[in-house]
Amino acid sequence: MPVGVEGVEFTFATAGRIVFGPGTLKHLAPWVADNGRRALIVTGNDVQRSQPVFDQTESAGAAVDSLCVTSEPTVDLVREGAERARRSGYDVVIGCGGGSVMDAAKAIAILATNPGDPLDYLEVIGGGRALSKPGLPVAAIPTTAGSGAEVTRNAVLASPAERVKVSLRSAHLLPRLALVDPLLTHSMPPDVTAASGLDALTQLIEAFTTHRTNPVTDGLCREGLRRGAACILSAYHTGDAVSREGMSLASLLSGLGLANSGLGAVHGLAGPIGGRFSAPHGAVCASLLPHAMAVNLRAMEARAPGCEALQRYREIAGLLTGREHATAAEGIEWLAAICDELKIPRLRSYAVAVEDFPGLIEAAEGSSSMRGNPIRLERDEMQEILELAL
User: Which superfamily does CATH assign the domain made up of 190-389 to?
Assistant: First the structure.
């Protein structure tokens, strides 16, 4: 009997063009040539990893400037970047790096064309105004496999003064080109491979269990979970080309999922932690993931035993373990074992302490990610997650 989707309404938005595969960086030069003559390339700390992007851009005949993002992008950095873009008359912005670099590139590109200050548009600490004008054309090129920021419609910025991380959100933030070349991830060290890979798995799990799932994101998340689970250990231990490609695809699929379905409690808690402590986002998500799932599972079994997300937790377990009839608890045990094998640090390694919990929980309660969690968590349940991850 066919399964329909009667009564289901959803939207799906993504980058203007996605190009995936080993060697696909070669598509950058023609895109640059079609879009302008002056490019700003935003990179991470290791500028050498982005040298092929500089080469491609210059081969298109474009004049090139660069901006290095040394940590989480701040409001001040993107403010200065946008002012520079306006002064210099850039035609395109290229972000080559991890999620922070791509978010910085997206933010600079859109703030260069919308009047006023970043605080006019930021949520939580700013005015939350709509970004009404399209930004400069952006090409987003990941060199890690985890954030999926090349296909998301937000840019996460740090505000050190308020000790928070907040977002710009707009469909205009979607890059014109998402160019995912797994060869660019081959130089990732094991700790970055582990943290970014588990960030991708977290995003896939949360996007698959939010209140805003739809048939398109469901299929993407299922495929991403299957590939990520099969590849993450070999990517970490050997870094072979097949596993690197699998993790790059899992990351891309996670970005497509979260951009259209949202996230959950892990990201709800990880955001405030990242705003208050010098802690890499992917590693924080990884440290929280098995504990948040265990608390969610117990809460759903007690308060919503018939909910669809509970069945999805069982399906996730099958996708992760490769065993069709695995229980939800077995899936969580698999994740906990992976975190141990990948040497994921505990929260205390970033100076998080028990006395920080009330402020972190209060901040998490108001986050958009927490609102997407499959069940509303009580404060004592959020505290339990933090205690278990500490």
Answer: Dehydroquinate synthase-like - alpha domain (1.20.1090.10)
